[in-house]
Each structure stands twice: as structure tokens, then as C-alpha cells.
Hints:
Elements: H1 2-35, H2 44-58, H3 60-65, H4 81-115, H5 129-154
Amino acid sequence: xxxxxxxxxxxxxxxxxxxxxxxxxxxxxxxxxxxxxxxxxxxxxxxxxxxxxxxxxxxxxxxxxxxxxxxxxxxxxxxxxxxxxxxxxxxxxxxxxxxxxxxxxxxxxxxxxxxxxxxxxxxxxxxxxxxxxxxxxxxxxxxxxxxxxxxxxxxxxxxxxxxxxxxxxxxx
Length: 172
């Protein structure tokens, strides 16, 4: 099951990379549109923002799974094995609760935007539920990644392999 989830999280990471490139292309299109008066690219700035938000939220789960989120280990590294495990479980429980809340409200926002037919205030008049999907999907995957890591911790499995320097190694 964990291997299937890792593939799903990797797919989200690739989508985050795709949206990062989309951000670049939208910014370049906006710059070109300003340099060439005959080219009017209404909404290019908005689409750059939508793509940037999608990239950030879709990258949450694969970043967590690879152990690359910033983690303050000052206390963790000074604890014994048992206390370290308990604190790790508590932190994952708190992280899971926050990620589930974020996913819940993100999904609600998408549903409300769709129901009320919210559109952007810019010239592009994009239905807002479409760019909000990236946030809802990304936060849902983030919650799933926390749940997966918590179950692994509770089962006594390592979350990821440790390198020689004590840093998490990258899982492919």
C-alpha cells in the first residue's frame, strides 16, 4: 500500500513541477504582452498566481514523504528511543489534525465557489473553483501523507531510510 501511495505522492510532485513551469510561462507571457502592445494577454498574472498556488499545495505531500520539510530536531535528537517515538507520534497526530482541517476547508471552499459560481475579479473571469482544486487536492494528499506516516510509526516501521549523516535519504 505504501508503494502505491508513494507513486501517488510522486505524481503530485511532478504536477507541482508542471505548475511551476506554468508559472514561469505565464510570467513570461505577461512580460511579452507588456512589451508588444498588440498582444493583450488578459489574466496572465492571475494564471501565474493560480499555477504558483497549485505548485505549492501539490508539493506538500511528496515533500513530507521525503522528509524534506523543515523539522526542528533539537529536542528529538536528545531523547531516548522510546521518548523519541512517542514525541514523533504526537507530532504526527497534531500534523494530521491540522492537515485534515486544512483539506476539509479547502474542499468546502471549492464546493462553495462552484455552488455560488464565484469568478475572479480580473479580466479573465475564471471560475474560482478551478484554480482552487489544486489547493484542495494538495491538502488532501498532505493529510493522506500524514496518515500514512502515522500508521507506519504506529506499526514500528521507519518513515524513511536514514543516511550516514543522520539526514533523511531521498526515496525514489
